[in-house]
Design brief:
The complex is a heterodimer of chains A (about 250) and B (about 260).
Chain A (H helix, E strand, L loop, with lengths): L4 H17 L2 H22 L10 H30 L2 H6 L6 H28 L8 H28 L3 H6 L1 H6 L15 H9 L1 H14 L6 H28 L1
Helix pairs in contact in A: 1-5, 2-3, 2-5, 3-5, 3-6, 3-10, 5-6, 6-10, 6-11, 10-11
Chain B lengths: L7 E10 L2 E11 L4 E5 L6 H8 L7 E6 L2 E2 L4 H7 E4 L11 H11 L5 H11 L15 H13 L5 E5 L7 H16 L3 E6 L2 H7 L2 E6 L2 E6 L1 H6 L15 H14 L1
Parallel strand pairs in B: 3-8, 3-9, 6-7, 7-8
Antiparallel strand pairs in B: 1-2, 1-4, 4-5, 9-10
Helix pairs in contact in B: 3-4, 3-5, 5-6
Classes of the chains: A mainly alpha (about 250), B alpha/beta (about 260).
């Protein structure tokens, strides 16, 4: 193993971050779409939705953030796929560097770029009336859940980026992920849904994550939701990482 | 005979992709400080050989050593000794030329990456383009940058996989000059090519890879001996199209 893992990863992160900042359209698309959903639900559907809350922007916020991250990670798959296609991946692999740095550069870039879009969405949310009395600990807990969620989905994106045979394949996996919050408690209480939909909504990862974040912002007890949420994120992370590494080893063998 | 150990030694190399046998026992040796050309048509297995030598691919059988290290057992040491310039310019299009060089210098732990980058930009005639994104570069500029990136950290052995494929004649001659310069400075160069002329111009030794084995190898003079001795014939020598092209283009630039 190379002794320069951290230095190598730092160089890779710097490279990949430049890719993000030099194609601002990627940041704009991943923030505009969730913001559009936020506007749509708050100002168009919001009046008719009975969510049992006086501040529907607060209610929306967690789901909107998850949509932003779900679409943001598709660019990670895209960037990794481009590296695989161009000769640069092979150049890195034929150099005396820690090979893991090549993948971790992309993963860390994903965390940083998603954090940027999350902050932008929070700022817009504040303008639209998002308010929270959450203290430092609650904010840290929310940040922790969001980072874990980002890491989990990023490794899913890494599988797509490594295994895809076309750009579309490297990004299309994120569409169902973006759709999941609509089948959850993100926009309406699950209690209003018909039986089978409700059963799905209440038992898929997004609902527990949304409920946990919402409870943290409202300073309500998080109950078991937070453990279910963390369990889902950690579980997806471990499975996706293992699978991505398998695909990676097969690719470089 | 040179007494120094060979820079590259390949023996009995085999590789299959599924049922397709690409290499069927390849043997050759490259003397340190020489230019060795692996000649072959598309699909002959040239790239497979280079990928094995640069530790990107594991052979099914046989051994391959680079700079005295085994490509399988001592892959890390091999990577320290080599540089690969692949078939498609392995440059980062979103970064500038200078940033590409600095990136490689940092990865190779070279001190003073900025100065190393500026030196190479100058040497490869890219100083003015250095601050521009590589996406705006021509094919020849990309290839020059690609080779410049390969030189960082002074690897003693350089693999160039079809370094001039897709380049226009002028760019090709520039790349040839650089390759010659590398060999003059003591670097061992293994290049693959499908252009006979390229092998003829550059290589100290040539090996022809055909259907998975080396069918002939030797110096150009050795290979010439394979054919009947040249007869003196009086033929009016017509300029080649390349000579015409270069003359016309060159004149235009001067005028």
């Amino acid at each position: 193993m190379s002794a320069h893992v951290f230095s190598n990863t730092g160089v890779m992160l710097g490279r990949s971050i430049r890719h993000v900042t030099r194609s601002m359209d990627t940041i704009i698309t991943v923030t505009i779409m969730p913001i559009a959903f936020m506007l749509l639900f708050r100002y168009v559907f919001g009046g008719a939705i009975q969510a049992g809350t006086s501040n529907y922007t607060n209610y929306l916020m967690p789901g909107i953030l998850l949509i932003a991250i779900s679409s943001g990670i598709s660019y990670t798959g895209f960037r990794l796929f481009n590296d695989m296609q161009s000769g640069i991946f092979e150049r890195f692999h034929s150099m005396p560097i820690a090979r893991s740095a090549v993948l971790w550069g992309h993963v860390l870039t994903s965390v940083v770029s998603n954090a940027i879009s999350v902050v932008v969405i929070f700022a817009v949310g504040l303008l639209m009336g998002f308010r929270t009395s959450a203290g430092v600990l609650e904010w840290l807990a929310v940040a922790g859940i969001l980072v874990l969620f980002t890491l989990a989905l990023t490794w899913v994106a890494m599988i797509a980026g490594l295994a895809a045979s076309s750009t579309d394949g490297a990004t299309a996996f994120s569409y169902p992920l973006i759709f999941l919050p609509f089948l959850s408690s993100a926009f309406v209480p699950t209690a209003t849904m018909p039986g089978p939909v409700r059963a799905f909504a209440e038992n898929q990862p997004v609902t527990s994550i949304v409920n946990a974040i919402r409870a943290l912002f409202e300073q309500q007890p998080v109950g078991t939701d937070i453990w279910t949420a963390l369990g889902w994120c950690a579980g997806i992370l471990v499975v996706a990482y293992a699978f991505a590494m398998r695909v990676y080893r097969r690719k470089i063998a | 005979m040179s007494t120094s150990p060979p820079a590259v030694h390949v023996s009995g190399l085999r590789k299959s992709y599924g049922k397709l046998e690409v290499l069927k026992g390849v043997d050759f040796t490259v003397a340190a400080g020489s230019i060795f050309a692996l000649l072959g048509s598309n699909g002959a297995g040239k790239t497979t050989v280079v990928r094995i030598l640069s530790t990107l691919l594991k052979p099914d059988a046989g051994t391959a050593g680079v700079a005295g290290f085994d490509v399988v057992a001592q892959a890390e040491r091999v990577r320290e000794s080599i540089s690969l310039t692949g078939q498609f310019a392995a440059v980062d299009e979103i970064l500038t030329g200078r940033e590409n060089l600095i990136m490689v210098a940092r990865l190779r732990q070279v001190s003073n990456p900025g100065a190393v980058a500026d030196d190479l930009l100058q040497r490869f005639g890219l100083t003015e383009a250095g601050g521009r994104r590589v996406a705006t570069y021509s094919g020849g500029m990309r290839r020059r940058l690609d080779i410049a990136m390969s030189l960082i950290g002074d690897p003693p052995v350089i693999f160039l996989d079809e370094p001039t494929t897709g380049l226009d004649p002028e760019a090709r001659i520039e790349v040839w000059k650089e390759i010659q310069g590398l060999a003059d400075s003591g670097v061992t160069v293994l290049l693959t090519t499908q252009y006979l002329e390229e092998a003829e111009k550059l290589a100290d030794r040539i090996a022809i890879l055909h259907q998975g084995t080396i069918i002939v190898s030797g110096t150009l003079a050795d290979l010439r001996k394979l054919l009947p001795a040249a007869k003196a014939e009086l033929v009016e020598r017509q300029p080649t199209l390349e000579e015409i092209f270069l003359a016309v283009v060159g004149n235009k630039e001067q005028s």
